Amino acid sequence: MEQIKPFDPQFHFGEMATGLDRQADGKWKLTTDAGTEIIARVVVIAAGAGSFQPKRPPVPGIEHFENAGDGIGVHYAVRKMETFRGKDILIAGGGDSALDWVINLAPLAKTLTLVHHRDGFRAAAHSVNQMRELEKEGKVKFHVASVKAVHGEPGKLTGVTLAGHDKSEWHHQTDAFLPFFGLTIKLGPIAEFGINLHENLIPVDTARFESQTPGIFAIGDINTYPGKLKLILSGFHEAALMSQAAFHIARPNEKLRFQYTTSSSNLQKKLGVS
Amino acid sequence: MKIHAIDRHGKEYTLEGREGWSVMEILRDGGLDVAAECGGACACATCHVYVNDGWYEKLPPPSDAEIDMLDMALAVEPNSRLSCQIVCSDETDGIRVTVAPE
Predict the structure, then answer these.
(1) Chain B residue with the nearest C-alpha to that of A124
(2) How far apart are CA B54 and CA A192, in angstroms?
């Protein structure tokens, strides 16, 4: 952040770009999940492999129970604890998130069940101890098991099938199922931007690092071209060439002055090293 | 040294292992869909495989770090391993693995 300061950029943290549309005047309108709209002549996608999203257990039909409403169905995060009051809750996982929510939701749940594939946890030791205490007090039920199937009408979860390691299976009634298996990287909304993709990567030319949509550039792990190497070094090179090309689109009436930090007093002044 | 692998669609592969390389690297370079997001640092659980046909028991046991990281994998079974932590050697010649679901 110190390094970028002299260039005075504007950041939008905690927002995901969800839409990209070309306007009548040729400029781009980017929309975020927070409702922010940004108008620009040039868009540079430097999204790595995409966005971090919660891991979804490979249970057939689980997606039909997501976004089902407060305190019911499948949730990958807890926003308001109160919505889970009086509910039968099933939590899966063995990390800090799983155990933290076991500890926090147990006092207000009707019943709380934890399932994990082994009788051991990677979560912090004090969380594990607290969970074991709750189990002793009968406030938490723990099974070495995993969720094999989900049951109910779409949007209305009624229960799951649990399977133990001895292959035994049983039905477990629940209002809510909270899987906590961490995050994985998915391409996300970029796939809907209308840009040409090849195996979830954006093909670019190696002179401009522009996608096949003029004005949309892509640099770093998200792009692909013959000889591509996913190296930080290559990413810097791509950014430099992209900037040269993007400048002429962003400021069509200005002349681009190519300068070196070693010899340009302008640049040294801007960077505060003169 | 050979690695027999089955991808998520049930397609079978026979790949040539390389001494000292991880099974993850051989699967990835062999064209199987193994994300290996962390690049082989035992830090993401996206190279999760099932080790089949008695091969699980023949391997050196997983480290505590690998056992912990498997908590972040989906559909873990008793024969689950992270393929970045299995090193190819004469002892693993002929190993059979199946790529776990995403």
Answers:
(1) B68
(2) 45
Q: What are phi and psi of A259, to 5 degrees?
A: -135, 160
User: Residue B27: enclosing H or E segment and its boundaries?
Assistant: helix B23-29
Residue A173, CA atoms < 13 Å, CB-side half-sphere? 4
Please write the tens of the pLDDT for every residue from A27-85: 999 999 999 999 999 999 999 988 888 999 999 999 999 989 999 999 999 999 999 99
Of B35, B44, B71, the CB nearest to A93: B71
Closest CA to B46 of A121, A183, A63: A183
pLDDT digits (tens, 9 = 90+) for A250-272: 999 999 999 999 999 999 999 98
Domains belonging to chain B, first-starting first, are 2-99 (3.10.20.30)
SS3 B21: coil
User: First vs last Cα of chain B: how many Å apart?
Assistant: 27
State the ipTM, two decimals. Answer: 0.83
> What is the CATH superfamily name and number for domain A54-181?
FAD/NAD(P)-binding domain (3.50.50.60)
Which of B67, B71, B78 is the closest to A95 by Cβ? B71
Q: For the whole model, what pTM was predicted?
A: 0.79
Instruction: Look at A58 and B74 and tell me if their CB atoms are within 8 Å.
Output: yes
Per CB-CB distance under 8 Å, the chain B contacts of A122 are: 67-69, 71-72
> Is CATH 1.10.3720.10 the right assignment for the domain spanning A5-50+187-271?
no
